[in-house]
Write a structure and sequence with these properties.
320 residues; 19 helices; mainly alpha; disordered N terminus
Length: 320
């Protein structure tokens, strides 16, 4: 599994280089599988596990290049090469091959995806939007859309591209689709929260930032954006909560404790505040106070995911 994850890391360093991006790796699994189940699949897996030199991705790329050289008119071979270039982060080469495919097959969905993802990774959102939108529009109504990892990836990149060019109103729909399909992609939730905030839907934004932080407890950027949203909503006590979690995310536990305790005095009915306190106490190895904070959170909301898991961890430590 580690070796496969190494391959995923090669596919996209930009978006998948931290723990909170892990789900995004899963979203692009389909792109890798398109390549893996192609004409070089058997050789790929043989090389990966039995002949480690040269690297399997290099062999896959050389094989793909040779296939195009041998038969330049073979569209399947050319799209496989485009995907191989994308896998190796050779974005410009991937774009060249995808465009070659589109001159022959203007409706080739794989070429749209390669083109969109490559332009997005080259920080060219204006160029990424059209092919990604074509891909999403072509597939979004399919029966098993929620299981289409390529579709999820395209929706994410499309929404993110709209955000980059300052069009949050257009980012909302594709990011809503991505969150709906992926269920647990913290990064997509964060991006959707930013799109909501950009369209002044601050309550929805806060909800997305909260969900994102459930999956990634130290998601500093989500808490910072949450604080800004609460500020716009005129809720200073919740700004304290969000800023307290920013401090927690940066391991500034003294300030985190001060801000969260202040927020708890004003909002004793908000479970995430006490779940946050539990995390701070736990990080300081103050297990009894952590246990008490988690229990308080669960009295308010018995389904609070952070508190449920935190209490289990703390109890295990206390019972050792």
């Amino acid at each position: 599994m580690k070796k496969l994850m190494d391959l995923f890391d090669t596919l996209n360093k930009k978006y998948f280089s931290s723990d909170k991006q892990l789900t995004r790796i899963v979203i692009l699994t389909g792109i890798v599988l398109v390549l893996a189940v192609g004409s070089f699949a058997g050789y790929y897996w043989y090389d990966r596990y039995y002949r480690p030199q040269p690297k399997s991705v290099e062999i896959t790329l050389s094989q793909a290049e040779k296939a195009v050289q041998d038969n330049p008119q073979d569209v399947k071979a050319r799209i496989t090469l485009a995907e191989a270039y994308m896998q190796n982060r050779r974005w410009n080469d991937a774009i060249t091959q995808a465009n070659q495919v589109l001159t022959v097959q203007p409706d080739n969905q794989h070429a749209w995806l390669v083109l969109g993802v490559s332009y997005a990774n080259l920080n060219q959102p204006n160029n990424a939007i059209d092919p990604l939108k074509r891909f999403v529009d072509a597939r979004k109504d399919e029966d098993m859309a929620g299981l289409d990892s390529q579709l999820q990836a395209a929706a994410y990149y499309l929404g993110d591209s709209y955000l980059q060019i300052g069009q949050p109103q257009d980012a909302v729909t594709p990011l809503e689709l991505d969150v709906q399909w992926s269920k647990s992609d913290a990064d997509a939730m964060y991006k959707l929260g930013m799109a909501y905030a950009g369209t002044k839907q601050y309550e929805k934004a806060v909800g997305m930032f909260q969900e994102a932080s459930t999956f990634v407890p130290d998601f500093k950027e989500a808490y910072q954006a949450m604080a800004a949203a609460y500020q716009n909503l005129g809720k200073p006590e919740m700004v304290d909560y969000a800023n307290g979690m920013v401090a927690f995310s940066t391991k500034d536990y003294v300030n985190a404790l001060t801000l969260l305790q202040k927020a708890a005095q004003q909002r004793s009915d908000f479970a995430p505040i006490f779940a946050g306190l539990g995390r701070v106490y736990e990080a300081q190895n103050d297990l009894q106070n952590a246990k008490s904070a988690y229990q308080t959170a669960l009295k308010i909301d018995s389904n609070n995911f952070t508190a449920v898991n935190g209490l289990e961890r703390v109890n295990n430590l206390l019972n050792k």
